[in-house]
From TrEMBL:
This is alpha-L-fucosidase. Alpha-L-fucosidase is responsible for hydrolyzing the alpha-1,6-linked fucose joined to the reducing-end N-acetylglucosamine of the carbohydrate moieties of glycoproteins. Residues 23-357 form the Glycoside hydrolase family 29 N-terminal domain. Keywords: Glycoprotein, Glycosidase, Hydrolase, Signal. GO terms for biological process: fucose metabolic process; glycoside catabolic process. It comes from Potamilus streckersoni.
């Protein structure tokens, strides 16, 4: 480590003050790492797209955990599937050459993500199967350049996003691999050795950051062992101090079975984490459009996909409680985003074109859901000393009034509907709150098809 004399240190501090940048160095401890503020872009963006894509997209049966369920747990449905459809000596590795990606068009993907209204993505670079979707030095013949697509899937999408959109590029990376010999050896040694971490996991992470400069890292595969094995604090301290994305990088909390939901960056806690109440720390709800799988399933039925109404309900609840929504899709082995995934994403984008003011760059209000009416979630925005409060109404009122219990009105209170030109009249509710008079609105004047947003200004609270 270089020695810095007092004059040099004073010069550095003066430089930091002059440019109003932070010169704080983060230590490889959770206390120090937890003290770093989450970059504003992440909190303001609110919505990301998760992409689970890998060799598991070839069998595309039941779940992205196919290999483990078949040969790890030896579950009968998976054994039967393989017996009926593949030759007796077929191995999971044989699927890799069938992961072809011939229809993979990263520019098209970027356009779909842009239309969705998402502000960042997290592409699977490596799932628990260990297959790497990039040109890596640390995975011989088990990566997308050596077998299958013969393409750098990660690099192509990063380039397409940066060329055609303002969406932040991010990655998903699994710390462990089900059947890697070095990992299995470390596990058999009760994790007293760290050869897998030293020669595989950490070299991959450093390579991904230096090569593709992601601004979001969703770590996973941490639950087998405490954080002492993964050496994650050293890596995160480097990310925050010296990496090429040190000022903008965001990480999650999955760095050891004792760490998730406690330490790190944003809290993912569990899959589909949605506490329904305001949290003390920034958190994220990673969830799927396919109800049962993160990867593509050929055997999914229509009712196996959530509706746009469910997506918007989850979005409203998540943002109201201070979280971000990371919504997952699973492309096919040949690189297509299924029409049903594309439709859901474009529907979300259409809704956000009208109602994004109530989502992006908002803050939680004093109430998250309404005190009288169910299916109402609140957000707020403070601009130029004017507080705007947004009530996201999941069901359109059946009568000619809507009564909400949370807003406290004043003589200056105004009520509008996002996307509709006229103000709404109102009166104080009989039990407090506000009663909004709902006029007859022609069908072609309704601003959106699902989940409507009333905007309040001039409230006392």
């Amino acid at each position: 480590m270089a020695v810095v004399n007092k004059a040099g240190l004073l010069l550095t501090l003066s430089f930091c003050l002059l440019l109003t940048v932070s010169c704080k160095r983060y230590l490889p401890t959770w206390d120090s790492i937890d003290s770093r503020p989450i970059p504003d872009w992440y909190d303001e963006g609110k919505i990301g797209i998760f992409i689970h894509w890998g060799v598991f997209s070839v069998p595309s049966f039941s779940t992205e955990w196919f290999w483990y369920q078949w040969e790890g747990r030896k579950l009968q449905p998976y054994i039967d599937f393989m017996t009926k459809n593949y030759k007796p000596d077929f191995t999971y590795a044989d699927f890799a050459s069938m992961f072809t990606a011939e229809f993979y068009d990263p520019i098209q993907w970027a356009q779909i993500f842009k239309a969705s209204g998402a502000k960042y993505i997290a592409l699977t670079t490596k799932h628990h199967e260990g297959f790497c979707n990039w040109d890596t030095k640390y995975s011989f013949n088990w990566n997308s350049m050596d077998v299958g697509p013969k393409r750098d899937l990660v690099g192509e999408l990063a380039g397409a996003l940066r060329l055609t959109t303002d969406i932040r590029f991010g990655i998903y990376h699994s710390l462990f691999e089900w059947f890697h010999p070095l990992y299995l050896q470390d596990a058999s040694n009760n994790y007293t050795t760290q050869d897998f971490v030293k020669f595989k996991t950490m070299p991959e992470l450093y390579e991904l950051v230096n090569k593709y400069m992601p601004e979001f890292i969703f770590s996973d595969g941490d639950w087998m062992v405490d954080d002492f094995y993964w050496n994650a604090t050293e890596f995160i301290a480097w990310l925050y101090n010296d990496s090429p994305v040190k000022d903008t990088i965001v990480v999650n909390d999955r760095w050891g079975q004792n760490i998730r939901c406690k330490h790190g960056g944003v809290l993912d806690c569990d899959d589909r984490y949605n506490p329904g109440v305001l949290q003390n720390r920034k958190w994220e709800n990673c969830m799927t459009i396919d109800r049962d799988s993160w990867g593509y399933r050929r055997n999914a039925q229509l009712d196996g996909y959530i509706t746009i109404e469910e997506i918007l309900s989850t979005l409203a609840e998540t943002v109201s409680c201070g979280g971000n929504l990371l919504i997952n899709i699973g492309p096919t082995h040949d690189g297509r985003i299924l029409p049903i995934f594309e439709e859901r994403l474009r529907q979300m984008g259409q809704w956000l074109q009208v109602n994004g003011e109530a989502i992006y760059a908002t803050k939680p209000w004093v109430y998250q859901n309404d005190t009288l009416t169910k299916g109402v979630w609140y957000t707020s925005r403070n601009e130029t000393d004017t507080l705007s409060v947004y009530a996201i109404i999941l069901d359109w009122p059946t009568g000619d009034t809507l009564t909400l219990g949370a807003p406290v009105t004043s003589l200056a209170t105004t009520v509008t509907l996002l996307g509709y030109p006229d103000m709404f009249s109102w009166e104080p509710g009989s039990m407090g709150g506000i009663t909004i008079n709902i006029p007859s609105i022609p069908f072609n004047k309704i601003p959106c098809q699902w989940a409507w947003v009333f905007k309040f200004q001039g409230l006392k609270n």
